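Table 4 source record.
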Amino acid sequence: MKEVLEINEFFIEGTNQKKSHVLLHITEPGTPEELSKGYFFALAEINNGTLEQIEYLQQMIDDLESGYYETNDEPEKNSFEITLEYINRRGHHILENKEALINCIIGVIRKKEVYFAYHGKPNASIFYQEQGELQTMDILSDQNDEEKNNQLFSSILQGNINEGDYLFVNTPHVNDYFTNDRIKKLLSIKNNRQVATHLEKTLQDINSEYSFGGIFIHIPSYLKILRPSNQKKEAGSIASLNQMIDRERNTDEIMSPPILGALKKNLNNYKEKKKEEEQTKNLLRLQEKRRQEINKIKKHGNIETNIRPHSNRKKQPALDGILINLGKALVTGTLWIINFLKLILITFFRILIGLFFFITNKDKRRQEVIKSVKNNFKNQKEKINCLSLFSKIIFFIFIILAITFVSSLTYFKIKKVNESKRIAYSNQIQAIKDKQMAAEANLIYNNNDSALTMLSEARDILNQLPSDSPEQMEEKTKLQEQLEENLNKIRKMETKNSELLANFTTNNDSLKIQKIAYLNNEIIAYGQDENNIYILNPITKTIETKNLSAIKNLKFDSTPKENDQIIFITDNNELAVYDLNSKLINKKEISYPINNIQYGPIFIYNRKLYGVDRHSGQIYRHNSTQTGFDQGVTWLKNTEDLSNVISMAIDGDIFVLKNNGEINKFTKGEKNNFIITGLDPILNNPKEIWTYNDTDKIYILEPINKRVVILNKEGKMLQQFTATEWQNPTDMVVRENEKAIYILDNNKIYRFYY
């Protein structure tokens, strides 16, 4: 019949993976061919190894496994020995890193026979019954520690393991905390699986920087009753293991000279009891020796988490009873939950029906519901009164415990939620401070763009910061002040003293001035619904009024560089010209290449008129004629979305300003990328843009933040101006040669110098 093994492993990942890394591998045979080969296991620990070395070692284990199961035995060698010879020839690169320490043991279990080989100083112990007591022997303690430098595995050890015996292989650092005596005591009171679980939990609680791994292999003693009566009794495990060295096999490629008599001597010495004090001293010396040995080795970079390929394991017969009991418990628990939910649903349904009749009084059953509720309370009260004193005490204790339990759950849930909020709040505060520190560091090196990015991210987090308590509000206010202080260093915002030149509402409150233009040292102010234009002399601050008898509904204007006239476009796309000499506005001719044109802003450049058609998404160019401007031609090679364009400027390239703060730049009819950098806050519903070919700056007016923004031609913010007198600036005229800017604000005209 098939031999049954109990195999249980444990693995604990250390806190310092670059110092200690463990690989654990167990393969259970699944096919009839594999059953004849038995079980394969491997356990390795690498100290201060590289990631490449770990991957090599993992590949070696995989190759050993596949080679062992796929290779047939030969008359002089079994498949395990053949595979080891192959690995020794191919595995020299694993040992090339002399700064790493490798402790590895691999083996197979075929029926009761055990074959294994090792490298370094892994631990392997046998636990066996002798005279009714559990005894132990360290198989590798007296083996020669010196190995051939160019070989992974220098010898194969072979022996038998019988019913009731335990084979325990583990990484070296496990014995720093669990001696064989301690494991022997555990095995005497716990089964194989429980001991493995106990070791794993205990070592995990230690939270060591080293990783741990181990494998328990046990043949249950109850298998003896399954053996046919005429079967020959096998030799004991100890007798077999004492013969291991005699049965070592030497090969030209991998085997080193055997070491005779080591295990037998170890067995005789181990039977003597050691005192607890001496054992503790030896353990401390062993720990210190390993630490010194590992710390001498050069440290490497971070290593990824442990690689643990593990084949599917079959259910172990020892767990059958537990699984059956667990199944019964699951069925019973499921039935109880179903009945409990059924009772809740029935009760809930009855309550709904009662509420329905109580609210609607259908069939006059409200009194019946009230009576039923009263009777129910009365019956429950009588049941409680009929209880004995002891039962009443138990009942009320149960009620109190239930209330306490629910209250505790609610309390801890609320506490957990509050703790999560507190942690999230602390993380947000720290993130804001970190970004402010990073921004300040960038400001030191004049890296304003990066600093602005950091501060903008900090502001976004700050806006989401809760302010539920006075302390939170105070902290939020403090952070906002710090943030604004740093932002002001980047904004380059300068407050100017604006001179009031005119207030058109002084004599007429109904006036609505919307636009201003500049011509020959005079400012012309007008409104779309006004019947007059107003001419302001900035020097004398006098205002002259001219009636618009010929043309009305002026919408946009542009003054050519020659400064000899002002071109207006009306609401119905008619053209008008303000004459410098007569100071009158006369209608001029203009035609369009398409019908239903909807002109927005216009601009005069090189005596040509450029107009933005918001409807078609095209910019048209009109040449001047004696009577006005010609029909015009398309200037853009491809139409664009120009529906929200509110202002335009030309310096050879065309800049159009949209009400969402976006600026589009067009060169020779094609759109180019134009991104504003270093500006805070971003443009919000700006009103005017101006530039020309004799300046290297772009001027933008934005009413919401009451500012004039100056950019270079690449979009980088250079300067910002504001004034305390401004309320809602809507138009501007830039006189760069005078270093003056005129601002229209609520029917008032201001001037400031920069």
